[in-house]
User: Fold these one by one.
Assistant:
Number 1:
Amino acid sequence: MKTNDLILQFTAKIVFFIIFFFSIHIFFAGHYTPGGGFVGGLLTSSAIVLLVIAFDLKTVRKILPINYMYMTATGLIIAVATAAYPIFDGKPFFTHYFDYFDLPLFGKTSLHTAALFDLGVFLVVVGVTMTIIQTIGEDE
């Protein structure tokens, strides 16, 4: 039986966004400081698990109708494609490319293919973690 804990539910809604935006910060900071796709993915998963604890699995599925198996597959394709692309360019596997671009609002910014690889890792970590949590949560 699920209790209706209003304080936990109200707090979870606010803390979810704090954790989620911090995970995005950690994701982007991972190129120059510790962090990246793996840690950002774990933080995002923990934010979603907080919602599952505060509400229930069915409610969270209505709020976030995401198929985490597809998310995992998409992340795996992005990560492998990013790592394998240099082979077709005559370079070693996992060679990353970067360049500097003058972006509006951001100014001179360096963009890396490592960010694409980290995006793939992020999606895989969130997808696998949430698939495990959902599988455990469905057992009654």
Number 2:
Amino acid sequence: MAVQVFRFDSPDRFVVGTVGEPGDRTFFLQAREDRRLASVVLEKEQVSVLAERVDAMLDEIVQRTEGQTEIPVVEDVSEEDLDPLEQPIVEEFRVGTLTLAWEGDTQRVVITAYAAGEPGTEDEEPPDDPEESTRDVFLVKLTAAEARSFARRAQAVVAAGRPPCPFCGLALEAEGHICPRANGYRRQG
């Protein structure tokens, strides 16, 4: 099967969303440009790390350019996208590797997701040019403002999962929770 590249150089929408109930959610990156719509599946941890790294990268660019680059320090909440994922949600592939870059000449954040490889190939370095990948690719270019908005929504989606236990901080399970701090174990003083 031929490698597919889902490329969105100027998406109308790029979001993280989920399908399912907390504790059993599937996380998606979804992009739409005109009539093209693509969705890829990734892990909750990948979403969390991606959101943190997008914000950190933008903060570093502001610092390095001493504010000369037009990057909002915080996302404009009037532009916040709270809509659900668009239908139909068709999984193009499961993400294995994510890369993040800054295109200085266009002032765009580039998020590239590569399909998970065969077992034993997870450590393969992604190519410099995504078009030369041996795995399917999902590539999105965002303005700094769009990237801030994406990161804010991604952080909110991750946080909207199962509530934490007030004693240990672990996520509460729907079928019950055995808390290591409240299960009768007492330290001897």
Number 3:
Amino acid sequence: MEIDLPNLEAIERYKFLTSVVVPRPIAWVTSSSPEGVVNAAPFSFFNVFGSKPPLVVLGIGNRPDTGEPKDTVLNIKASGQFVIHTVSEGQAEQMVKTSTALPREDSELAAYGLETVPSQKVAPPRIAGAPVALECELHSIQEIGQNRLIVAQVVHASIDDAFYDPKTGYVDAAAMQLVGRMHGPNGYCRTDSLFEIERP
């Protein structure tokens, strides 16, 4: 089957691409508005982009209801700072709730009972209980159609003591019980079933 993606409707392109690019890690992002409202929202167009310097990338489109930029984008543009959290299975339902579009003056933290702790090097707070938090400073934003490629440098990282050995640098990824995105609006996966293949 050959598929001419440019000639499909946008929703059909989205459905196809999010069905074949799986699993996708979830970036649960906190950011702050100029008025001090803390926003929390999940994004699955996310990945690590490099280590020299340590870079991550987010792909964030417009709000589907208005076509305007999402609050996370506006906050990142205004402050240049945000925090990416990994999502454990225990926090998955709260994470999904924060995908709901709230008025800009409302905080998902208050709406869904999320607790925070102060970040070390950026202004937006971290979500308490998240296995990993990556504090980020904006490097650049590239606008492509209705999409934005956000490149940021990780300036500080926090990980639960249970999942990290400081002597060896070993991260127990399976123990974190992280979840990822699969196809469809309700598709998620677990990441605690792992296997290894030795490189030649």
Number 4:
Amino acid sequence: MSSIAAVLSNAFLDGDLAPWLVAELGDRRRIYPHYFAMFAEHALEHGRVEITEDRLAVAVWYPYHPDDPPPVRDYDTRLGKITAPYTARFVALDDAMRRHHPHDEPHHYLGWIAVNPNRQHRGYGTQLLRHHARHLDAAGISAYLEATSPTGRDWYARHGYQPREPYPVARGGPLLYPMWRPPADTSTTPHSPTT
């Protein structure tokens, strides 16, 4: 669990949402390891964690069915203790994502994909996305995620994710870019011989 939380914390320390969530870098360095450890614990029990062999990149997926995955244990209390005095921003992020999450079709939700900063732009994220896409396509399952920037949105689009209408985290806050990926058709139709 600690290596998962470390990759997430390091990767998002200077991420697109970071300055809005926690303005002070020193406070982020204090908050993020505990914040992501809470989610790593939950993901190992209720999600699907995929991590590279060198443990420098991780993807956290949640299967969504008619019933959502159970919430993080004691989430409100733990979130308040971990993120104070910035808790309201984290709550706003949670609320916005919850309101916009699609619930009309089973899918896998990509909660996070993260690569250790000194290994970024080397294909780790692509490797993780393609690995899970093969599983989704074989099972005929869609995927959903929120990109945190136009650059991220464009990267996911190259992997088959279709953009939906962006929405703000809060009034005056950053935008999130929801994206949906239908499963690719993996069936092949054999050609009939002509007579």
